Amino acid sequence: MSLLPFFQWCYQTPIGETIRDSTWLFPVIEAFHLLGLGVTAGAVLIVDLRLLGVGLRKQPVAQLAAGAEPWLLGSLTLMFASGFPLFLSESIKCYYSLPFWVKMTSLFLAVLFTFTVRRRVTRTELTSARPLLGRFTALISLGLWFGVAWGGRWIGFS
Amino acid sequence: MSPLAFFGWLADSSWSVDLHESQYAYSIIESIHVWTMAVFFGSVVMFDLRLLGLTLRKVPASEVLDRLLPLTIAAFVIMVISGTLLFYAIPLRSYQNIFFRFKMLLLLLAGLNVWIFHSRVYPKVVGRDAEGAPPRAARLAGALSLAIWIGVVFSGRMIAYNWFDCDRQPQPDIINFLTSCAATESGQ
Hints:
The structure holds two protein chains of two kinds.
Chain A (H helix, E strand, L loop, with lengths): L3 H8 L2 H8 L3 H27 L9 H29 L1 H5 L2 H26 L2 H4 L1 H25 L3
Helix pairs in contact in A: 2-4, 3-4, 3-8, 6-8
Chain B lengths: L2 H10 L1 H8 L3 H27 L9 H29 L1 H5 L2 H30 L8 H23 L14 H6 L2 H7 L1
Helix pairs in contact in B: 3-4, 3-7, 6-7
């Protein structure tokens, strides 16, 4: 089954149409999307760098993860809330865009990984005995989020 | 040579034109600029939130700063280099872009805020920030920094849009004044 009809339906929603008809809406929503991107990066990096043994390495991983999590959840909410209307306004272009599919696949995997494996690794003190586990977790997390950032930027170039 | 004439000359130089018209180089530089922005802005936000007492309250603010600063500085250096190249690719239009001008103004303010923070506020933070919210001056510096950097990201994003470009007339006089568009018409 093709997803194209669904993307076409998204395109003609009132939200998508309103954004397309406006000069300002797309750029302003996009700027909020970028701000969310920055906060997500900060909340992810502070924990992943710790897992890699740089940054705030005196603190227990669990403490940093607990401090960063509300900001990670908050910024991801902002990203979804701003990204979804942007998608509605150009969903047909997205359907034919390779970067869009790279982004969505990476996003799905990044969120899945973050709230299952990474959460488990960072909540317990597993990594103090097995630093390699922490490093792998951080590298996978950073790699997946970079996939999201790569795709996100290149949707605009296609 | 006026700035306008200088950036006009720069815009006509062959390397600038090559970069502007390149198939991939410009896009890659712009991507690097955005990605390092996320790292830079993210680390600044985490530190500002700590100054405001909104995250990692159990970690001394001075330690958050010491440990994050190398990352922040590295990202900032890459942003300045990539940003300069982006400007170099489209110099005249960027120089006359109202959002670019606003962004540069905000960057000056951000620099001033950093300078005041490090010379006057930070020494107070180090002594008494074992736990919880730092002193009021530190919280104020954190809030200011957040507001300024949000403004920088916002105006940076808007540079791409040509609503107030000189070739889109008529514009209100105040816009043409702020973008030096009037000078282009009469002076060049």
